[in-house]
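Notes continue from the previous slide.

Worked example: a multi-chain complex. Inputs as given:
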Amino acid sequence: MKLNTRVLRIAAAAAILAAGGAATYVVAQPKEKVIKITAKRFDYTPGNLTLKKGEAVVFEFTSKDVLMGFNLPDFNLRADIIPDKVTRVRFVPDKTGTFTFLCDIFCGTGHENMNGKITVVG
Amino acid sequence: MSKIDRREFLKLTSLGSIGVVFASALPGMARAAGKTSGMDDFYFLQLSDSHWGFEGPPNPDAKGTLKKAVAAVNALDYQPDFIVFTGDLTHTTDNPVERRKRMTEFKQIVSDLKVKSVRYMPGEHDASLDNGKAFKEFFGPTNYTFDHKGVHFIVLDNVSDPRAQLGDEQLAWLAADLKQQKSDAPIVVFTHRPLFDLAPQWDWATRDGAKAIELLNPHKNVTVFYGHIHQEHHQMTGHIAHHAAKGLMFPLPAPNSQPNRTPVPWNPAEPYKGLGFRSVDAEVKEAEYKLTEYPVVPKV
């Protein structure tokens, strides 16, 4: 837990100082999970994701062909996915359920079917 | 034939064979057939989402439905003052040559309409892949205004930008146009996509549509007609009524009623069900509009 980590870090630093030692204290930050999502006409890979409520993730989007969109309306989260560029979006789901994400930049005849699901569990 | 005659006609036929009057509690729209009105009243037709070029099981008569709609319009006893197509005239294609071929064919088919005053606007299938280039070549500007018998009509383009937005430039143009209108002027807006968030999960929205609604809000008598969702739908945002029209290729399910927005399957027992067009009777003085829904193939 974040608070506990901070308390431990302060306590450890205090202990080092109390012992008269000079040390650089480095805390390894918990790494956020990175989820790579590739968009191409007319789907996302992966198209189904399961996340945990309250657990931050970073989406890394890439497009294999044209400009695409990623829109997760239930969380008011969206991004342009630009070809040959990695687009990073941090996301912390704050509610459980199954939610649709979709391409919201018209990309051709299969555009209407370009969507996926995110299931957030407790 | 005058407008009053047409209303009398609707009343006399009870609409049994030609359509259904949309009667609703929504303010500013429902009115009994046969009611007399001012001399400037008129009516127009809204046709939408013909998706010319589409092929697939949702419509085994894909090459015949638009022609049937044209025939149904021409068969109306009283012809409208004008007809508006609210977008997706053609089905999208990556091929610019094919896109123009479809637009040529569409134009050829609708040239058979008796009424020659026809207004067009694009849907995302017509315009999003080339920012409206081909559409403009065939049909002219994608946003414009016109006035008819006391009503100010505004055509908004929320599709030429594939991001489904009007854009700041068009919003500024809209603001400048509205500044010239009295606050109680009857205003009708045509768009392809809904201006409000009908179902963002299905891309049934306009990213900056709320800004347009904000500009329209100070005006007392605004009604919006749109397409895109291939079904009749009516919703209010404040005092503004938004009416979606049926399509002319395949119906789509009710907003968010199923996981995906796949077309409603064709039912051989009830062909063309869910397809159609509408008439809009404008009672200008009251800024009221009476909607009548017509099937593509008149019921016998």
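Summary box: Residues 2-18 of chain A form the longest helix (17 residues). The CA atoms of residues 39 and 63 of chain A lie 5 Å apart.
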